[in-house]
Amino acid sequence: MKDIRRPSYKLTFEDAVEIWLRLWRGDFQNRIAADYDVNPGRVNEVAKEHTHVGSRLAALLKLKKSA
Questions:
Q1: Greatest extent of the chain over all pairs of C-alpha atoms, in Å
Q2: From the centroid of its chain, how far is CA 50?
Q3: Is position 45 within any domain?
Q4: What is the DSSP string of 2-34?
Q5: What does pTM read for this prediction?
Q6: What is the pLDDT of residues 2-31, one digit of tens each?
Q7: Domain that residue 42 falls in
Q8: Measuring CA to CA, how many Å separate 37 from each of 4, 32, 42, 60?
Q9: What is the mean pLDDT of the chain?
């Protein structure tokens, strides 16, 4: 049984970079959130750059490097 008092996963900067890449591929925020076991609001905070500022630029650089 899951401990309901245990906080959910906290997104890291690296997670935020991967979230940007998934958003650009067209993945829905709620599905991304489910994969990380977080509230969809946490993914939205990344998408609006309220958290992990700079992750969008890092994702863009990672995308360009892989192309």
A1: 44
A2: 12
A3: yes
A4: --TTS--PPPPHHHHHHHHHHHHHT--HHHHHH
A5: 0.87
A6: 666 776 789 999 999 999 999 999 999 999
A7: 13-66
A8: 13, 9, 10, 25
A9: 92
What is the pLDDT at residue 6?
73
Domain count, the chain: 1
Classify residue 53: in a domain, yes or no.
Answer: yes
Residue 2 falls inside a structural domain: no
**DSSP H or E run through 41:** helix 40-47
Q: What are phi and psi of 34, to 5 degrees?
A: -65, -40
Percent of the chain exceeding pLDDT 70 equals: 93
Please, which residues have CB within 8 angstroms of residue 36's CB and are 6 or more apart in sequence? 9, 11, 15, 19, 42, 43
Q: Angle 53-56-61 (CA atoms, 0-180°, nearest 5)?
A: 125
Is residue 7 domain-resident?
no
